[in-house]
Amino acid sequence: MRSPRKIILGVSGGIAAYKSAELLRRLQDRGFDITVVPTQASLNFVGIATWEGLSGNPVQSDLWKNISQVPHVNLAKNSDAILIAPATADLIAKLAIGRADDLLTTTVLSSDAPKILVPAMHPNMWLNPATQSNIKVLAERGFHILEPAVGPLTSGDTGIGRFPESFEIIDFFLASIGSKSDLLGKKVLITAGGTREEIDPVRYIGNRSSGKQGYALANASAARGADVILIAANVFIEDPVGVQVVKVKTALEMGEKLFELAPAQDLIMMSAAVSDYRVATRSQSKLKRDGSSLNLELIENPDLIATISVAERPNRQNQIIMAFAAETSISIDQAKEKLVRKGVDLLFLNDVLNQEVFGSESNGGYLLDSAGVVAQFPYQSKDTLAEHLLDLVVKRLD
Q: Which residues, 6+ apart, have CB-to-CB distance to 352 below 8 Å?
């Protein structure tokens, strides 16, 4: 299962609604793409303009608008999790009896994604037997419920019912959806896509890499709390949320960015397919066919992986560098030699002849270190593979 990326933030009508603005920002820092679904009552505290400005996504609260688009069903289908914070006693009661009379409750009822509730209310309301019974019913149905915090309340009273701190909510949310925060505070640099070396203004030498594996790694790393920079070469898919993307075209451009950014990183994952050669002299105008043969002089590009792995920098010993090797035949011995020759810590080896990799949604192969095979991965989604690779890499980070 891929790490959830798109989530609904439901906001119900309690004074704590304003605190959800900070929660939204902190979730975005983790790489989540958030659509806010406020109840009508909550708009008395925080308006639609604020939620749209913060989330960067359209916000709808009225069940009876855009009916032709069936908004509650589409929201449910396109979201990986639903987080409702704050959840009032009234909303909890509606959910417990399966009531669906507004956009948020109909969306919850339409969704089979994980659902997380963060109740916030006066202590008397929280401890009321009706609320406690409703909470028990929802927990039995699979809702994940974070108990309110204890502290001073808007009413001037003190007790249980306070909206928890954002970091507590995020930790609970990540645990509830099976995600992890084991890269929190780490800096991760990833390369993705395929470089292109121009022959003339029209033609180039390139490869078939789509960049999907690198983007999956970037998404997974950001979701685990990492500060991610992605160097993307000629990738034509949507940029990951919460990731700094640097666009390049050629091997030399990628190398320039690598050498600039590498010193500050804890983990470098080089999944891009870098052209081994470039033309010695690029034509300034389109080469015309004239019936004769055409010879191109090619010169080697720098070996970016080998160069970056041996480059002297203060924190090199504390860095983990993973290289990727796409081969048309699998030789573990040759891969081990390549790992040592490149000077990297880990090498992911895959077979691009006998399994569809380029441009596809799936990948499989072997992860090696200098001692041999660390793990073998069956052909699976690139999102899932990214999670498995990170599980193993994280263990090597300090």
A: 326, 327, 328, 358
Q: Which parts of the chain are beta strand (E)?
A: 6-11, 33-38, 81-87, 115-119, 144-145, 149-152, 158-162, 187-193, 197-198, 204-205, 227-233, 244-248, 267-270, 277-279, 298-300, 320-327, 346-351, 362-369, 372-381
Bridge partner residues of 8 (DSSP): 35, 82
DSSP symbols for 107-125: HHHH--S-EEEEE---HHH
DSSP letter string, 298-362: EEEPP-HHHHHHHS--TTGGG-EEEEEEEESS--HHHHHHHHHHHT-SEEEEEESSSS--TTSSE
For the chain, the residue count is 398
Q: What is the pLDDT of residues 271-314, one digit of tens each?
A: 999 999 999 999 999 999 888 999 999 999 999 999 999 888 88
Phi, psi angles (nearest 5°) of residue 153: -120, 165
Residue with tokens 């919460």: 242
Secondary structure class of 69 (helix, strand, coil): helix
Contact 220, 253 (CB under 8 A): no
Q: Which domains does the chain have, with CATH numbers?
A: 6-176 (3.40.50.1950), 187-394 (3.40.50.10300)
Q: What's the pTM value of the predicted model, to 2 decimals? A: 0.68
> Side-chain half-sphere of 114: how many Cα atoms within 13 Å?
20
Spell out the residues 6+ positions from residue 53 whose beta carbon is closer than 8 angstroms to its own. Answer: none
161 phi and psi angles, rounded to 5 deg: 140, -10
Burial class (CB in 10 A: 0-12, 13-18, 19+), 340: exposed
Residue 298, amino acid: L
The set of catalytic residues is: 207
pLDDT digits (tens, 9 = 90+) for 112-130: 999 999 999 999 999 999 9
